[in-house]
Amino acid sequence: MEKFLENFAAQFDDTDASEFRANTEFKNLAEWSSLTALSIIAMIDEEYDVQLKGDDIRISSTIEELFNLVNSKK
Amino acid sequence: MAHLEVPNVVFRGVSACVPKTIDKNCDYPMDETDKAKLIASIGVEQKRIANDDTCSSDLCYKAAEQLIADLKWDKNEIDCLIFVSQTPDYILPATSCILQDRLGLSKECYTQDISLGCSGWVYGLSSIASLISCSNGSLRKGLLLVGDTTSKTTSYKDKSSWPLFGDAGTATAIEYEDNNQGFKFHLATDGDGANAIIIPVGGYRKRYSNDSLIYKEYEEGIQRTDLDCYLDGMSVFSFAVSKAPKSVNSLLEKYSIDKDSIDYFTFHQANLYLNEKVRTKLKIDSSKVPYSLKNYGNTSCATIPLTMVTELRNVLVSNNLKHVGCAFGVGLSWGSVYFETNQIACPEIIEY
Fold it and tell me: Could you tell me if B288 lies within 8 Å of chain A, comparing CB atoms?
């Protein structure tokens, strides 16, 4: 989870690292945009070799939920 | 893994035709800051839009006539024609039959429509090359006509689709030639993603009805009817960024092709953000990866031949080149092809 948080945070430019916790509702972050979503998807493909669907992003609200989804697809 | 090696066929030429009407994304009605970001990320500044009277087949027809003239082919010697599109003239008959007559080809001509979008040129090429190859010289010359008028299936009120898509028609000429090494393919399919790019109504699963023309608002700036194309951008992106590089690598590995020996990697022009992710993942230098996105947008199945014409014409007509093409999208369907060109015919881009 630590590593996932780090990878997740790396997709943002302006958001402070302390804002990324397991229970962070990432779509509420001010910097979140459709482009960040694509960046997260690309990171998950690159680092975890998992091909997410759009709905996986849509149904996840916290970073931990997304992390669990990625793990379940590995 | 669907790999395919098709010998004894040669790539003779390629042409492309676009509508005259230019649609500029800077004129699209949306928040200016968001629009600037959108244009920068998709890499599309303008595209061509067909008028109500112009079909994909019209654009392909023009492209074919010019290519036949440049090649000085006798129309009676064209033995097969394959038309690839998601925007045919009619539900029936097949547009390839109409094109055979309109182009004045022999009645002893094999024709066929293929219903594919983004991946269509690579798939169509595998079909026509295989057909000519396995005929052992009985079918000698073939035309692959690939085009779409996606503007007709896209809602202007959908900011997630309209700025991306343009219209184009193309022609590719293939000929039988003994001992030519021909084409090598990797081809794949994942129908689990069928809903990722879909026109939900108007086929025979869900018939056209009185409600079909009603605009529904999905979110701000996204309104479309059930006859318009829906695009799940996140799912398509995720699919392509994963599968396109794997397909290219699978092709290169299977046939022991040295990546550095390839002159040009021409990708389906999906959008700049996605295409650059694919390119950097494959570690290909940008000088080997042409883009026509800026001026023509994503023209569905026509992107690879269109990009060859608009970006590579000078070298195609004068040099011998090694190519990899890779296309991916609606289906979901994807594939890659390796081929060589030897000073081919390539007329300048045509306007309709």
Answer: no
